[in-house]
Specification:
The chain is an alpha+beta fold. Helix content is about 20%, strand content about 40%. α2 crosses α3 (about 265-290). The longest helix has 29 residues, at about 5-30. It is elongated, with a radius of gyration of 35 Å. It binds zinc ion. Zinc ion binds next to loops.
């Protein structure tokens, strides 16, 4: 072993150590948060509608922390810094709430929002940078909105119509807001910018209020109240005694399709049919009847509904039914239609043209066609023995669509006639009354057309 050899070995060790140190340092820099190479992110839309009132929200994020940022608004009228900061305690996430600068009073028009961010990473000596530019469309005008005409009154459980005007360059949405959370939607009516909607006061709601709301993309909001005189209506309640033959017959048959009911007692099974199955069947009806057509209409010439000739009314709309078995209250439900009876297997006629949206079996409603008459008005015909129409058919006025029967939860042969406005059951009596339709619907729409024409 020579010195030379020992020397070169020593050199090799040093070189190796240096390499390890160098690679290690490099690896440290490469993987360390302090040297991360990821640019900050700026969460901001490429195009923003701004009402020049509410703060514009911009979200900044960075893994090593944000060191500095600037937010500048550029327009033909000038260039203003909305916000800038040098942060001593770098933050990984920062929400900017940019407010319109008092010194730059911009009217409707365009501007540019420029954002620059730098993180505190030691990479590249200056850190990682991010830059973003967004087009700002300044819209300080709220939608133009007013009620043109509406029904004078609405009854609890009943319907009304409203026509309104709504216009905005950047309109986002408009709807009718109610005190019970339901939103009604309108259909384009007669001329550009005008809309009509049927609205309903649900039977179980104590009071009613409705306002048209319009929102634009910049967040400007307009509201127009629909002035309606509220009419209270009395609804009856009735006590029904359940018979064992009914529980073991009709009810057991209806429950048979549901395995969870097989081990139930007669009363449990009745509750299932009257409550759970009813809710499922009604949900289908509500869903199918909540759609509003989008094509423009000029007229809504609805005729009074008389689905069954020479019929007797055997049960009312809105009755709160209490079911008793052996003297004990076992279940309850609201009757959401009108029951009509004449002869067995009597022909059911469509009193108004309509599109068939459903024609199938629907649990407690049995065989049930459902028609859409436009403007969100729908009718259902329950317990049919025979149905002559199918989904998608267009039916004409006075066309026979089905025959009465006792399918579903029905004791004798009768028709359950239901009317719905955007998914809400309403008083069929109103839509069977020529005078009511004339006063509350037809005349209001005619008055609206006259007002639109004279504008
Ligand atoms: Zn009924």
């Amino acid at each position: 072993m020579s010195y030379r050899n020992r020397g070169s070995k020593k050199g090799l060790y040093i070189t190796l150590l240096l390499v390890i140190l160098f690679v290690g340092a490099g690896y440290f820099i490469y993987t360390s948060d302090k040297f991360e190479r990821q640019a900050p992110t700026i969460e901001v839309a490429k195009q923003i509608y701004w009402n020049y009132k509410d703060p514009l929200t911009v979200q900044l994020r960075d893994n090593s922390g944000i060191k500095s940022y600037t937010a500048i608004l550029e327009s033909s009228k000038g260039r203003v810094t909305l916000d800038k900061a040098q942060l001593t305690n770098a933050q990984k996430s920062l929400t900017l709430k940019l407010l319109p600068p008092p010194q730059l009073d911009l009217a409707n028009g365009r501007a540019k929002l420029v954002i620059d961010v730098q993180d505190k990473s030691l990479w590249n000596f200056t850190g990682n940078k991010a830059h973003s530019e967004s087009i700002i469309i300044i819209d300080r005008k709220k939608p133009e909105l007013f009620v043109v005409a509406n029904s004078y009154a609405i009854a609890r459980g009943g319907s009304a119509v409203v026509v309104f005007y709504c216009k905005d360059d950047n309109l986002k949405e408009f709807y009718i807001k109610t005190n019970f959370g339901k939103k009604f939607y309108a259909e384009p009516f007669y001329k550009k910018g005008y809309y009509a909607a049927l609205i309903a006061w649900p039977l179980q709601q104590k009071w009613f209020r409705a306002d048209v709301i319009a929102l634009d993309k910049a967040g400007n909001r307009a509201k127009a109240h629909i002035p309606l005189y509220l009419k209270e209506r009395a609804y009856k309640s009735s006590n029904i005694k359940l018979k064992k033959s009914f529980l073991e017959g009709k009810v057991a048959d209806l429950a048979a399709d549901y395995p969870e009911t097989h081990d139930m007692s007669d009363i449990q099974r009745f509750r299932f049919v009257n409550e759970k199955l009813r809710a499922m069947n009604e949900k289908l009806i509500h869903t199918l009847s909540s759609k509003v057509p989008t094509e423009r209409i000029a007229r809504f010439a609805i005729h009074p509904f008389h689905p069954l000739k020479n019929a007797a009314r055997v049960a009312n709309f809105g009755t709160h039914r209490y079911y008793f078995y052996e003297g004990r209250l076992v279940s309850e439900a609201y009757h959401m239609g009108l029951d009509l009876a004449s002869v067995r297997h009597a022909p059911i006629k469509a009193s108004n043209p309509g599109k068939v949206v459903f024609a199938d079996y629907n649990g407690i409603y049995g065989y049930m066609p459902m028609l859409s008459h436009g403007l969100g008005l729908y009718t259902i015909y329950g317990h049919c023995s025979q149905v002559f129409v199918k989904k998608g058919d267009e039916v004409g006025r006075n066309e026979t669509i089905a025959k009465t029967g006792n399918t579903g939860l029905a004791l004798g042969d009768h028709l359950h006639f239901g009317v719905l406005v955007q998914g809400i059951e309403v008083r069929p009596q109103e839509w069977m009354d020529r005078h009511w339709i004339q006063t509350n619907i037809t005349n209001v729409l005619a008055q609206a057309r006259r007002m639109i024409d004279t504008k």
